[in-house]
Each structure stands twice: as C-alpha cells, then as structure tokens.
C-alpha cells in the first residue's frame, strides 16, 4: 500500500513513520466535504467544506521532539477522525508530525535540538536543520494561503516534559512584540484545563515563537504530561485538552471569556545560559518543573559566576545542564497577576 493510500485510510502516523515507502503528494475529499492535501511527509493540510473567509488558520504540530509521543498520538487521533468523516472541521488546519527520523530513533533529536532551529534558514548540516527549514516553509506557505487575519492565525505546538512537574499540563507563551496573547487563546487554555501558563520575556527560536514573531499567530508551546513510549501514555489525563481541541477545530467560534484565578500564571524572571562545560546546578538535573527555591538559595554556578534565587524566591523550569554551550540551561519564573484587555499582560 502506498503512503498516500495509508493516509487516506486514516493512518497518518504509520505512513509518516514508514521511511521505507516513498512520499507521495495527493489531494482528496472526506465524507464531510473537507479537502485534505498531503503536502510532505508528516504535513497534512485540511480545508473545511465551505470556507467563509472568517475561519482560523490553525497549525497543530507534534513530534518536534521525537520521544514526546502523547501529542503525536493526539494528532493521529484527530487526523483519523477528520479523514474518516467523523469530524467536520470549521477551520483551515495544518497537522504536523514533525520529525519522523527522531521518532523512529526514540530520541528527542538526531544531532541538534530542533526546537532551537526556528530562527530562520539553517545551513543543511544535519537532518534536524533540514526538517526545521521544511517546517518553516510549510507554515509560511500555509499562513500566506489563507484569508485569516493575524489574530485568527493560531499555532499550538504540542510537547510533553522529560521530567516531573508541579503542573501536569502547562503552556509557554513565546515573547513577541506582536499582539499574540489574545483573550480567546487563554480562554481556550482554561477550557482545556491547562493548569498553568508561563509568559516568556525574551525572544527564542522555538517553533511556536517562529509563528508568533513572523506571522503574529496566537502561538503556544503546550506541555502535555510526561515523556513515555508509544502505547504507555495515559491519554485519559489529557481528555479535557483533547475535547477542547475538538471544539476548537469543529466549532466556528469558541467562548472567549477569561476567568481570572482559574489558571496559575508565571512570568519568566531570568534565563540561565550555559557558557562553559563547568556549568552545574545545585540540585538534581531531573528536578521537577516549577520547584520553588526561596530567596537567596544557591541555584547554579558557571565558572566564577554563581546564581541565587531572587527576592521572593523563584521556581525552576526546564532545567538541563547537559545542553550545548550557548543554549538555555533553565528558566526561572515567578507567579504573577495579569490584566486582560485585548491582550493578556503582566500587571506592573
């Protein structure tokens, strides 16, 4: 069976991961009238049966890190429901299973962390760079092909954490000077029972940042549970998120009312960068995300530089002393209050 035939039968994931079969581009319609187009391996564009010009252009990506399997399973489930005519989308969709080579290898990446490669065109020095370039092109083409205004462009990049966390699910809102923290976006997080959101304060080179920075998309990196092998994920714990995702995809509009206090909001206070091989934490490298350190506690050292928790204390997120020199070793965050006009903002 060809790759295209497999996808047409709903097996988007299996066809994507089978690197022994050649890629075959193709277009077809589902029983609900939606148009599906397989653009490249792991990239599936879906157009609703009767576009109105007011629909969202919604990117849903998974597998940027190959060992983060629960989001990949959710994207496969969503693709299958749409392809098999069980779900009629109301919006333009770009479904992505990003890195089949790393997924098959059961690793986060092959040579470079791909979620640090979305700042623009990369030299084609390895497969991670090549795929990052292809994904940037796919998103650019997708957003340029629709009529959605910038606030109707969304990108949810689905991940799961490599360690435990005080919050089983949480979102990271990338920093951008564009208005990318819309009330509707954060209302969706509440409907999806996402426990916390973290507001970044500096630019990055992640996939969600790419869409926010270049296309003013309402973009988030979503951390959904913890890394596990295929078949070992407890998807029941992610049921509120998936049900909210189904509503987002299938309904023309979703409720936009933000309920203050239903989700913990953090602001990033500092980003610790690894400057040498001497970088070390004063806690285990697998320390749980959002572990709190009281004011003055010794956090880390890098040669002659020492880091201590600031006034009021800080919590650590994504600690990893084994990153390459020049990359982020962790984020430090504090709980914060926010105000909401058209955009979510940290209160002064």
Automatic annotation (TrEMBL):
<dbReference type="InterPro" id="IPR050178">
    <property type="entry name" value="AspA/AstE_fam"/>
</dbReference>
<keyword id="KW-0378">Hydrolase</keyword>
<feature type="domain" description="AstE/AspA barrel-sandwich hybrid">
    <location>
        <begin position="262"/>
        <end position="335"/>
    </location>
</feature>
<feature type="domain" description="Succinylglutamate desuccinylase/Aspartoacylase catalytic">
    <location>
        <begin position="56"/>
        <end position="248"/>
    </location>
</feature>
<comment type="similarity">
    <text>Belongs to the AspA/AstE family. Succinylglutamate desuccinylase subfamily.</text>
</comment>
<dbReference type="GO" id="GO:0016788">
    <property type="term" value="F:hydrolase activity, acting on ester bonds"/>
</dbReference>
<keyword id="KW-0862">Zinc</keyword>
<dbReference type="GO" id="GO:0008270">
    <property type="term" value="F:zinc ion binding"/>
</dbReference>
<feature type="binding site">
    <location>
        <position position="68"/>
    </location>
    <ligand>
        <name>Zn(2+)</name>
    </ligand>
</feature>
<dbReference type="Pfam" id="PF04952">
    <property type="entry name" value="AstE_AspA_hybrid"/>
</dbReference>
<feature type="binding site">
    <location>
        <position position="159"/>
    </location>
    <ligand>
        <name>Zn(2+)</name>
    </ligand>
</feature>
<dbReference type="InterPro" id="IPR016681">
    <property type="entry name" value="SuccinylGlu_desuccinylase"/>
</dbReference>
<dbReference type="GO" id="GO:0019544">
    <property type="term" value="P:L-arginine catabolic process to L-glutamate"/>
</dbReference>
<feature type="active site">
    <location>
        <position position="223"/>
    </location>
</feature>
<keyword id="KW-0056">Arginine metabolism</keyword>
<dbReference type="GO" id="GO:0019545">
    <property type="term" value="P:L-arginine catabolic process to succinate"/>
</dbReference>
<dbReference type="InterPro" id="IPR055438">
    <property type="entry name" value="AstE_AspA_cat"/>
</dbReference>
<dbReference type="InterPro" id="IPR007036">
    <property type="entry name" value="Aste_AspA_hybrid_dom"/>
</dbReference>
<dbReference type="Pfam" id="PF24827">
    <property type="entry name" value="AstE_AspA_cat"/>
</dbReference>
<dbReference type="GO" id="GO:0009017">
    <property type="term" value="F:succinylglutamate desuccinylase activity"/>
</dbReference>
<comment type="pathway">
    <text>Amino-acid degradation; L-arginine degradation via AST pathway; L-glutamate and succinate from L-arginine: step 5/5.</text>
</comment>
<protein>
    <recommendedName>
        <fullName>Succinylglutamate desuccinylase</fullName>
        <ecNumber>3.5.1.96</ecNumber>
    </recommendedName>
</protein>
<feature type="binding site">
    <location>
        <position position="65"/>
    </location>
    <ligand>
        <name>Zn(2+)</name>
    </ligand>
</feature>
<comment type="function">
    <text>Transforms N(2)-succinylglutamate into succinate and glutamate.</text>
</comment>
<keyword id="KW-0479">Metal-binding</keyword>
